[in-house]
Design brief:
It is an enzyme of class 3 (hydrolase). It comes from Davidia involucrata (Dove tree). Its EC number is 3.4.22.49. The protein is mostly helical and 134 residues long. The protein has one domain. Helix 1 packs antiparallel against helix 2, helix 3 packs antiparallel against helix 4 and helix 5 runs antiparallel to helix 6. The longest helix has 21 residues. The protein is globular, with a radius of gyration of 15 Å.
Length: 134
């Protein structure tokens, strides 16, 4: 619900940006608590948590272009997705989100996470049986 609310606030333009980031931060906090519980290490929570980290990174870049938080958020999302069997629950929308993330990192000149992003994209392509050219 908080992620949906964040998207709604973001749709309002720049005026909703800070509220959007706040909702995403709250969603991340709640999902981190849920994901941290041993009995609830579920794939859907992990996936939504990773999406929330990416969305917050993209919004943070717009609100505070010099913030280092966006790199931490992207790194956290990738760690979640690259974890064991986490890629199976990823949706097609994640690929589009990853394109935006890799573009952002490229514009910032930050290539440290590119390898992880490309690995994740390759996993998604393989899962969808997309032939990878050599």
């Amino acid at each position: 619900i908080l992620i949906a609310k964040a998207r709604e606030l973001r749709a309002r333009g720049v005026e909703g940006l800070n509220g959007c980031i706040q909702c995403l931060s709250e969603a991340i906090s709640i999902m981190n608590d849920l994901y941290g519980e041993a009995s609830s290490r579920s794939i859907p929570v992990c996936h939504q948590l990773a999406v929330a980290y990416c969305l917050r990174a993209l919004c943070t870049q717009e609100a505070e272009p010099n913030s280092k938080l966006l790199f931490q958020d992207i790194h956290a999302a990738l760690n979640l997705w690259l974890g064991r069997d986490q890629c199976d629950m990823m949706s097609e929308n994640v690929l589009i989100l990853l394109y935006h993330v890799v573009d952002l990192l490229s514009m910032k000149g930050y290539t440290k996470l590119h390898t992880d992003i490309y690995e994740l994209m390759i996993r998604l392509f393989k899962r969808k049986n997309v032939p990878l050219e050599k």
